[in-house]
# Entry
Amino acid sequence: MLKSAKRFALTAALALAAGPALGGALGLGSEARPEEVTAWDIDVRPDGQGLPEGGGTVEQGEMLFQERCTACHGEFGEGAGRWPVLAGGYDTLDSDNPVKTIGSYWPHLSTVYDYIRRAMPFGDAQSLTADETYALTAYLLYLNEIVAEDFELTKENFTSIELSNESGFIPDDRPDTPGLSEREPCMTDCKPEVVIRMRARVLDVTPDTEDTSAVTSD
Amino acid sequence: MSTSRKPQGGTTRRGFLSAAGGAALAAGAIRPAVSAGPENLPPNVPGWSRYLGSGVDAYPYGQPSSFESHVVRRNVAWLTASVESSVNFTPLHELDGIITPNGLCFERHHAGIAEVDPSDYRLMINGLVDKPMIFTLDDIKRFPRTNKIFFLECAANSGMEWRGAQLNGCQFTHGMVHCVMYTGVPLKLILEEAGLKTNAKWLMVEGADAAGMNRSVPLDKALDDCMVAFKMNGEALRPEQGYPLRLVVPGWEGNMWIKWLRRIEVGDQPWHTREETSKYTDLLENGKSRRFTWAMDCKSVITSPSPQAPLLHKGHNILSGIAWSGRGTVDRVDVTLDGGRNWRPARIDGPSFDKAVHRFYFEFDWQGESLLLQSRAIDSTGYVQPTKDELRAVRGTNSIYHNNGIQTWHVRGNGEVENVEVS
# Structure
């Protein structure tokens, strides 16, 4: 008992101290078979890595969209009720009411394919074929006025499509407010007067917290 | 097993709140100490001192006292279109210390809670590795373990407050943060088991839920302090926190901490997934957006008094709150009672861990005057928590994410507290 505990501690110490040693340090787990990797490896990258063979047209996409997507996203991707808007919103990003869509905001088309393939339709994920996902992606490009109605999106022409906001992103440049080295925080007589400018109660959007739901049992 | 032991009457803080809400209290009238009825008070002998209570095993998995049944996570229904892609909030105003109880850790799901059978659980590592690997949960539990306490904050915590005071309670303004002890395996050890190719620079981490939640993580961070965790606060992860295995990305925004972790792909460039382009990018006033804004900036909030935790007594009172930083420890918290005219150092109490919640206290005397409470945290890198106006001056009001501005609570003469903004 004691011996094995000691041996474990030794292995642990060795493993934690080891640099970027390559492969099989502890002999745990098993090698993934190629078909297992193919089945799970569904991600798509901006350079096209991960795109499956195939293609689909705007027209095919429109039919699929009516069938499987409009209930939530609306006939033209305008969003039914509070469900997400998928089209439009151009020239709104610097306004008071920015509308972020595939057309107005998303930097890469690969994200559309990757996301639909893994997560949509909501509640029935990973049920679309590769061709269906191409067709839906093509239709969303059409709804965003990026391609014409006779367009066919394929693995081959996929990376030639550019979205308008690709250059709209900048690296994280925080901290963007003064730190200790720039300004010692004021402790006394920091401002002449203090006025309340806004109250949450005016809006009255806070949920009622007076109900006493029973203790959850999870 | 029963979870519905009935409270035996008495006035609670909720009673106070509803009374205050109904404007039943005259200004300055503070409620007397909570009383459970004279039959339980001296000189009488209460029932619990005379008769036997429940035996062992009445509650095989212990539950909080029925008097605490109001201490629950709550959501804001109007925020989202469906409860499966939604969020609820930790009741910060009822908690103390630095550890969040498992059942009160806020939830954020993109496609509901995946119920994963641990015997069918698999973690796949593929991409730029010597050998693509599959690990069972048992495999993971045979790696050397580590225990670490970290906060997890959603990047959208306080996101509803960019345009001004909106939600009246720190549960709703700040409740997308929790802090627990994780038990798991350094991610580095798992990656080394597959063997990293020399051109490996990024990971794509992916969940097993119906959102297939995925994000890119730079390899440096993964090798530095990330871990895969199977326990929180000593017990198995809760399903809503990613049972049986989640990623831990210390100090970085919550949605990167992939729950129900199913796959890690190693690559040489980022993926630009939906959750790091359409969402979790920070739109600035000029229409440009910051991307890969991973670190959670230093932040603090006074949890009591706060709108859901009004002042009940004149005289000596305790102000309490939490502070945290994604870049290190919290070194100092200052508080003000007069809206930022004068500040005093608060007392940080309890352990101070890197990238964990810190607890602070400030004792003060209150005679019914109006107060404007704020806290300002400073972390070990010298980062000073900014005012909301300072943030707006740099970023505008459309960022949604990363609002760590100083919060103001207005305490009225009758003890009620409201979320306000001051000049």
Remarks:
- The first strand of chain A starts at residue 30 and ends at 31.
- Chain A touches chain B through 95 residues (CB under 8 Å).
